[in-house]
Amino acid sequence: MITIFLAIGIVFTVVAAIGVIRFPNVYSRIHAASKSATLGVLNLLLATFLYFWLIEGHFNSRLLLGIAFLFITAPIGGHIIARAAYMSGVKLSKKAVQDDLAAVVKARQMMGPKNHKAD
After folding, report:
1. Residues in contact with 2: Cβ distance below 8 Å, sequence separation at least 6, in sequence order
2. pLDDT digits over 52-67, tens only?
3. Which regions span the lipid bilayer (predicted)?
4. Which of 15, 71, 87, 100 is least enclosed, having the fewest CB within 10 Å?
5. Is the dihedral of CA 21, 26, 31, 33 positive or negative?
6. 118 vs 90, which has greater pLDDT?
7. Residues 9, 41: contact at Cβ < 8 Å?
8. Relative orientation angle of helices 61-87 and 37-50, to the nearest 10 degrees
9. Is 78 in contact with 93 (CB distance < 8 Å)?
10. pLDDT digits (tens, 9 = 90+) for 88-97
11. How many CB atoms sit inside 10 A of residue 9's CB?
């Protein structure tokens, strides 16, 4: 079981690395880095936790906290980086079909800075 989690973690991490290299724009790369790498590291940490618990007989709560911290911070970090890239003018890929955030940004600009909640 530990070997399976290690193998899955390695596969997801390699897929994330390939995605970061091959995808055409920053938004796709952020998606690859935050989704695939999160699942890869999760499986690696889970395999490590199971090894220490089942083989060595030690319950390591820090690994469980690491898994929880990773699930909380990776999606939030990816979202914040993507939003900052969009607000600073990084263009979407030519293959992008729809820009949902453009309407929201335009509506907020029309309302003015005092009429909406801070981000």
Report:
1. 47, 50, 51, 54, 55
2. 999 988 898 888 898 8
3. 6-24, 36-55, 67-86
4. 100
5. positive
6. 90
7. yes
8. 170
9. no
10. 988 887 777 7
11. 20
